[in-house]
Amino acid sequence: MTFTGILMVTLLVVVLVLALALLAGSLALLVTAGDSRIGNHSGLRQSLHELDRQWRVERWVYRHHRVFGLLVVMIALSCIWQLSHLQFFTASAVTEPWALLAWLLAGGQVVNLIIGVLIITRPSLLKPLEDLSNRWHRITAFDAGRRLPARLRALLLFVVALVVALTSGWLLLRQFAV
Fold it and tell me: I need a labelling partner for 159 at 20 to 30 A (CA). Which of 20, 43, 70, 165 fits?
C-alpha cells in the first residue's frame, strides 16, 4: 500500500471512530433530552459535564517533565524515521502529489522534536504557549443552537453523525475494494 493509501485509510478510520462515538453520544442525548425524571445529577448529565470542564494537567507535566519530554522526542523521532523510509527526499518524489504532505508532516515532527527537547530541558519556556492554549473560548455563532429544543438538537446531531459514519465507512470499504 502506498503512502497516500495508508494516510487515507488512517484518516477514514479516525473519522469513522469519531463519528461512531458522536453517534452513540447523540443517541444517548436523544433518549434523555427533555425527560423530566432525569435531574441535573443523573449519570449521563454528570458525565457530559465532566467533558465540558477544563482539565488542568500542567502540574503533572511539570512534575514529570523529563519523562513527558522524552516521550515526545521518541514519538517525533519515530515518525521522522518512518517518513525517511518513504523515499520522498528523492528528486522524482518532488513531483508526486503526496510529497508536500510528507514534507509538512516531517516539518511538524521537527517542531515536535524541538518542543520535546524544550520540555526536557526548560519547560518554563513554553509557558506563554501554555497560557495561550488554556484560554476558554466561547463561540457565539453556536449559541443560537442552544435555543432549539433539546430533542431537536440531539436529533440534528444524530443525523449529522449518521451521515458522517455512513460516508466514511463506505469510503473505507471502497478503499479496500480497490
Answer: 43
| Global pTM value | 0.51
DSSP conformational letter for 1: -
How do residues 50-71 score in pLDDT, each as one tens digit? 556 666 777 888 888 999 999 9
Determine the Cα–Cα distance for residues 150 and 156; give it in Å rounded to an integer: 10
pLDDT of residue 67: 93
Identify the burial level of 71 via C-beta atoms within 10 angstroms of its C-beta, where 0-12 means exposed, 13-18 middle and 19 or more buried. Answer: middle
Contacts of 168 (CB under 8 A, 6+ apart): 12, 15, 16, 19
CA distance 123 to 30: 44
Find the helix packing angle between 99-121 and 65-84, rounded to 10°: 160
Nearest to 108 by CA among 83, 135, 134: 83
Those residues with Cβ within 8 angstroms of residue 125's Cβ, 6 or more apart along the chain or in another chain: 118
Instruction: Enter the C-alpha cell of residue 111.
Output: 517542531
166-175 — which CB contacts under 8 Å span 24+ positions? 168/12, 168/15, 168/16, 168/19, 169/16, 171/12, 172/9, 172/12, 172/13, 172/16, 175/5, 175/8, 175/9, 175/12
